[in-house]
Structure formats: structure tokens, C-alpha cells
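Something for you to look into today, if you have time. Just paste the record in under my message, thanks.
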Amino acid sequence: MPAAAAGTLQLGDLTVNRMAFGAMRIAGPDIWGDPKDRPAMRRLLVRAFELGHNFIDTADSYGPDVSEILIAEALHPYPTGLVIGTKGGLVRPSRHRWDENARPEHLRRAIDGSLKRLRLERIDLYQLHSPDPKVPYAESFGTLAEAQRAGKIRHLGVSNVTVKQLNEARRIAPVVSVQNEYNIAHRDDDDVLAACEKAGIAFIPWFPLGAGRALRSAPVKKIAAKLGATPAQVAIAWLLARSPVMLPIPGTGSLAHLEENAAAAALTLSAEDFALLDKV
């Protein structure tokens, strides 16, 4: 289980390995519709758990619905120790649109839909996918808190938030995770990461490998060559070294890339390596 080499962290009362799997790219091209090879994606999900990825991140907008359905097809009845997190609050009216919809009535339907597709009675982690500028944030997150009190959700998280929005959510109900964009070349949310560290909240970086430019940068390539690793593995190792609350979720539709990413959990960066990567 190479993904276990990175150690563990807590999502509330749930212990997960710090190398997780993001299930966005198991849907079709542009994260739209079915994948070309559904059986291959089911095998990929099984292999992800075998490699030690015991936290799988998804959302109802991936497909839409496709990722959640495939997870249930591949892994239900779920093995002991597997934690599934999903999200609601973004809708896909077409292939290239991701629109905010965090109205309470939509979120209630979204939670029930995820429960049905994932074949669960209670979702381990449910995150508000994005603030909706048309809806007060407290109203949106408060709807999730209501579902938690009703027994439909175990733990709550937020995504794409500022420190102010995180604090607003925490005044309503406990928050165990934050999922914001973060990678070696995109560190705009260092203040949110610092707030998570202070509160002991897991920070789940989406787009953890960043753009190709970052992976082709001289520092990443130099350290990859030195360690006999790939640039992607170096980028993941940097995230793991960046903070003890970091929970990377590199996603892929490729079995080879899945194996490659899992091996990054055992990669150790020296202080010198880490300092060089800070220049990316």
C-alpha cells in the first residue's frame, strides 16, 4: 500500500492516509458524460484502494453524476476503512459550464441524489463545492448543517473559500476540511492553509499538480533527476512536505499515472530541495 507511506491525518473522527484519490477524471472528456471505458475506470478505482488511497474525493458535478455512480459500481459494498467525500453546489448545464447553485432547495436535492448514487445512508464528508454569490453563505452552509443533524452527513467541509467564509462556516457547524486550489505554482491561499493548520482542519488541494509549466520548471526537473523521480512525484512530495494538514488528491484516468502518483508518498525532500522548489 504505497500511498500509506505519507502517514495519516484526521477528518473529524475518521483517519485517512494523506495520499488520497481524486475521482474527477474518471468521467468522460471535459469531465462530461461517461468515460470511453467504464470497466477500466472501475478497475482503476479498485486499484486506487489497493494502493492505499482510503479517501476518495468526488462531486455530483463530475459527469455530472458519473463519478459517484462509478464509485458505487466499483467499490460497493464498501471495504472497511474507505472514506468517501463528495460535494454539491455546482451544476453543469452544459459541457463547458460550471455554475454556482447553493440555494437551500438545490442542496437538499443534491445531498439526496449523492446518497442514492453512492448507495449510502450517510455521507462521510460532504463539502459545499463553491460559494454562490446569489445566496448568503451562512444560508448555504446552514443547509448542510441541517442535513448533518438529520443524519445524512457525518462531517462537513467547504471548498473555494476565503478565511472569512471558513470562519463563517465554523460558527455554524464544525468544519473538518477545506478544498481550495493549491499547488507548487499556485499558492494564493496560503492564508487559508495557515488557518487550517491553526484549527487542525484538513486542507485538500485541488489541481495539486498544477499546470504543465510548473512541472517543466528547472527546479522541479533538477530535483526529479536527483531523486530518480518524475516531476509529478516531486510536486506531490512538495505538497506533503508543505504542511502536516495537507491531503493531496491527485486524480487520473490512467493506471500508470495512478501507480506513479501513489509512489510519491514515499519520496522525501531535503530542506535544500524544499527551498529550491519554493522558487517555482
Summary: The first strand starts at residue 8 and ends at 11. The CA atoms of residues 212 and 232 lie 10 Å apart. The chain has one domain: 7-209+238-252. Residues 104-118 form the longest helix (15 residues).
